[in-house]
Amino acid sequence: MQFARIFSNFEVEFGTNEAGQGPGSTADTLVRVPVRYGDASRQAQTILQNNSASSMPATPLMTFYITDLKYDRPRIQDPTFVNTIQVRQRTYDSTTGTYETTQGNAFSIDRLMPVPYEATIKLDIWTSNTNQKMQLLEQILVLFNPSLEIQSTDNFIDWTSLTVLYLDNVNWSSRTVPVGTENPIDIATLTFKLPIWLTSPAKVKKLGVIERIIASVYDAQGDLNNALTNSDLLLGTRQVFTPFGYQVLLLDNKLQALRSDNIVDQPNASLTPPDSPDTNLMWHDIINMYGTLRPGISYVNLQQPDGTDVSGTVAYDPTDDRFLLFTVNSGTVPANTLAPVDAVIDPLVSGPGAGLIAPAAGQRYLLTEDTGSYDNPAGDNPTAWTGINGQPLVAHTNDIIEYDGNSWTIAFDSTSSPNNMQYVTNITTEIQYRWTGNMWVKSYQGLYPGGSWSLVI
Amino acid sequence: MPRLSLYRPNRTNDYQFLDRTIAEMYTVGGLDIFCHKYLGPQGAGTDNGNNDATIPNYSSTNPLFIEDLLLLENRDRVYDPDVFIMRGVYRQQDIDFDLSQFGLFLNNDTIFITFHYNTMIDFFGRKLMSGDVLEFPNLKDYNPLDTSIPRALPRYYVIQDAAFAQEGFSQTWLPHLWRVKATPLVNAQEYSQIMNQPFEPENIWDNGNFYPGNTIVNDGNSYYKAAGNVPPGTGITDVNPSTGLPYWTPITNPTTVGDAQSTRPKDLELNDAILTQAYNDVPLSGYDNVKFYVVPTNAAGEPSDGATTTSSTVVSSSSDEPINGITPNGFGYLAGYLTGGTNTPNGLPVTPGVSFPPNPAVGDYCFRLDYFPNRLFRYNGAAWKAISDNVRTDLDLATGALTQRASFVNNTYTVSTTDQGNIPSRQSLSQILQPNADNGNQGGNITPANPRPPGR
Predict the structure, then answer these.
(1) How far apart are CA A29 and CA A20, in angstroms?
(2) Cβ of residue B70 closer than 8 Å to a chain A Cβ
(3) Average pLDDT, chain A
(4) In 3-state terms, what secondary structure has residue A284?
(5) Fewest beta carbons within 10 Å, which of A23, A207, B5, B196?
(6) In whole angstroms, what is the distance from residue A121 CA to residue A69 CA?
(7) pLDDT-derived band of residue A277, with 50, 70 and 90 as boundaries?
(8) Is B263–A56 a contact, with Cβ atoms under 8 angstroms apart?
């Protein structure tokens, strides 16, 4: 196609003066030379000739055809090589047929190493006289010194589209010299070599995940040799990171993006919800790198220490682009193993009727401090918490206590559950906690550093 | 007693007797063959501005002339507008369409025709020669595949060789027949005068009758078409009193014999179809990155899009601090070989012009048309930074294309001089800057001048 384009629109001059006109003629006598494929089928050629012996061929004319196609071994490269590129498209408006200024789909495209071939193409130049032939050749031959760049497409992703066309040989004439008993159409033949690439289809995949990248090839210092020498691979030195190292902080139903160096005032080990740090990192900016967020469909995975994921759908917060609204998929949240608590309290600061409501049967509290001790002298234990038989309650930090209607009892004894995985929800803050064996931590709310979360849009 | 001899050195009565008999045989048994007589090469008339001694400036047509004394060929031939009808005889043969490499012709369709010599001289004025064109009415094709063709297609041949026929020598050893070798005609430059004749609908003229509607006639160098039936004796400019309209309508581009009967129109259609698709595939050189999206980034390389809703400040700037973000500060991963065009990243608005717009906002783009190639700038709050050049270019015939072919070959510009008017910028290296008459035809005194734009 593009080969024919190279040789299209050449013109030759008919006429007797240099203006290309005969006497009395005002017509432009520059005549365009058509270019067409030379190896027509018999039926197609019959149609072109109107199925009539009275039809006349015309000159000047150029025809082209492939005479050879061979594997180009010197240009061979790694046949198994796969090149991957990520591209983002602008939104396409099918109504107007134009691209908009916003981001549309994003794709990851795998391209397999194409196969090198060299095509030999011949171009026949049909002329009825020598002057005509010279006119054409002097226009064509100056273009090849020795080659001309040729493109099969202007597709940015097509890495096989660009090649060059080499002029390999010129056969001046098909006629015998001097001319014999006839005066046939003269055909000059130019032979071209065209290195081309034949390629298998590309593999298009949707680019929709902010991936956690596990770099297992290089060691922590980025040194491949050391990693191999020290057998670091797959031996716990794998790095997991997220593009730009962004962290996310889940507070209630809001997911905030944080830079890797942002500090959160309350660690995950704290039972106190952290405050949202001041940042200017916007979710639109992040997500636009990968595509378009589909509210209620796109979701975030939060990797838990036990290897499981807590997932939830997300949508932009219409009031503040620093946050995504996170709707947790309850099926992915660990089930509570204990009945919920009403609050997390410091028993030395608050008590029933003193900062807390009056005790009622079924009330449960998670304690952040010890209350009472068997080592205390009689009468020295706090009396705010009444235990069994009217004795002051003795409980420890991380214990859960419950009121049975008459007295406070220990519902979860932290001192006797060192290796016990327990989950409980604070119904005041809706935060679920997880018992690690020696302390309560937030179950899935909190900070997720880069590499421990992913977004699927 | 003189010795017996059938040989006659002169054309005696024996010869005349035999010749008349042979002529009668051709009249009785031969067929009409229409002969287009070659008159000579096209003369240039007045001075054609050509100083080439090998291409003489003939003032008349004469078959003795040769148009090109170097290449020895007559490219622009003049044929007698009158068609001579002579009786000839040829042997019929079967023909095959040959589609081998050079077989777009009817390769074996070479025929040999004999004419009665003296009749030929009487009618034609000379012997048939190479270059004369013959038309065979018995080979008309009344049923071509295209049924819209308004008349039967005649069969044209051109004479390649001519000599006395061996079968035409009588007992007197004098020749009576002229044998020509003819091959199918090609729509070529040499026969353009025949090919450019209007392809008229079939009309058997009955003297004294009218011209039917759509008849095409020739008057001087112009062609006219009958709007309706035209009575005999009507002038070319006469007006039909019943309609108030002229009988004859001038036609400037009539369908010609070449259009109707040669493959050239279809060859051009094929070429145009190829070009249309080739242009769709590669409208400009290089690569199209218009459809792709570039994420705006800040100075740290992080994504930053000021267009989104936020409750906090996205961009803070001072007058001396370049600002990135808001709009892409380049084409990023889309930059590459011949990717620069007229587009901005993500198709964002741009101000084209020959100067930067006043009071720009951070992230504004400006496309400077006075740069060659045109250059795209982005304002970062402190300066306009160049981010792309318009290097994608037309690959075809545009004179403004950024290719050497356009610059050197398709060069239509002129250069002004103080004494020779405007001379063409494109000149043959062998004759460059010579004060030749070429200037008068191609560039000299062109009004207005067509100077080369700056940078081209």
Answers:
(1) 6
(2) no
(3) 82
(4) helix
(5) B5
(6) 9
(7) confident
(8) yes
SS3 A227: helix
Joined together, the tokens standing for residue A220 give 């922590």
CB-CB under 8 Å, A90 with B110:
no
Quick one: A253 exposed, middle or buried, by C-beta within 10 A (0-12, 13-18, 19+)? middle
CA B361 to mean position of chain CA atoms: 54
Selected residues 40-59 of chain A with any CB under 8 Å from a CB in chain B:
40, 42, 45-59
pLDDT of residue A27 exceeding 70: no
Q: What is the rounded radius of gyration, in angstroms, for the C-alpha atoms of chain A?
A: 40
- The type of residue at A224 is L
CB neighbour class for B4 (10 Å; exposed up to 12, middle 13-18, buried from 19): exposed
* Contacts of A126 by beta carbon, 8 Å cutoff, 6+ apart: A57, A59, A60, A61, A62, A63, A185, A186, A187
- Per-residue model confidence as pLDDT tens digits over B52-93: 788 888 888 899 999 889 989 998 899 998 899 999 999 888
Residue pair B155/B136 in contact (Cβ under 8 Å)? The answer is: yes
> Which residue of chain A is at minimal alpha-carbon distance from B302?
A244
Query: Can you tell me the distance from the alpha carbon of B234 to that of B257, in angstroms, rounded to the nearest whole number?
Result: 27
Yes or no, beta carbons of A58 and B258 under 8 Å apart: yes
Structure tokens at A51: 């199925």
Helix, strand and coil content of chain B, in percent to the nearest 5, comes to 15, 25, 55
pLDDT confidence tier of residue A233, bands split at 50, 70 and 90: very low
Backbone φ, ψ for residue B179 (5° rounding): -105, 130
Considering only alpha carbons, which residue of chain A is nearest residue B110?
A: A182
Confidence band, pLDDT 50/70/90 cuts, at residue B421 = confident
Q: What is the pLDDT of residue B113?
A: 95
Burial A191-202 (b: 16+ CB within 10 A, else e): bbbbbbbeeeeb
Q: A26 to chain B: which residues are within 8 Å by CB?
A: none
The answer to whether A124 contacts B101, with C-beta atoms less than 8 Å apart, is: yes
Asked whether the bond before A146 is cis by omega within 30 degrees of 0, the reply is: yes
Q: Which of B81, B75, B72 has the alpha carbon at shortest distance from B44? A: B75
Q: What is the pLDDT of residue A78?
A: 93
**Of the candidates A55, A90, A101, which has its C-beta nearest B261's C-beta?**
A55
Contact by Cβ (8 Å): A17, B44: yes
Whether chain A has a CB inside 8 Å of the CB on B313: the answer is yes
Query: What letter does residue B346 receive in the DSSP assignment?
Result: G
User: Could you report the predicted ipTM of this complex, rounded to two decimals?
Assistant: 0.83
> How near does any CA of chain A get to the CA of B238, in Å?
26
Query: Among positive and negative, which fits the CA dihedral B243, B246, B252, B257?
Result: positive
